[in-house]
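Check this.
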Amino acid sequence: MTLRKLVAHFSTIQHHRHLVRKFCFQMGLYYQGMMHDLSKFAPIEFWNGVRYYQGTRSPNIKEREVHGYSAAWLHHKGRNKHHFEYWVDFSMKSKLPGCLMPIRMPDRYIAEMVADRVAASRTYRGSQYQQTDAFEYYRLGQGRLPLHPYTQEKLEFFLQMIAEKGENATFDYIRTVFLKEARINGTF
């Protein structure tokens, strides 16, 4: 670990959080924007992030390559409801391998997940970012992810919308249509 990696990792976290906050505010999710990813400052997440920092991808990927799993990720996904992995339970009734049972995410966390994925793409791609990046990254794991059908449908719809119409149009739609309906329907 070096001071350079510590500063760079801290800056990456802050840049990512700033973008998510901006996007969440655009969607009217002020509390979620302020609270997003605070667990990244917990020792297990922060110091593992510094240790495996590369700058072009999540340190969790490198930690997983070294150890076969990421302790930082296991900590993170269990504390952040905007990750679909938070919403995976186990059931003998499940038809998925390992009895995995994806649960439908509340709509406000689907919206935050979209913001998170766009912000991560912007953060790691830097000046090479294109509005199709978040959708393309999602497609790398498509079909292998334990997503509830509703969550999958909405996530794909919004990532495709960003790819075609851009962030502002998509976040405006999420705020004025998707989340407005969620409040009315009780799925917020």
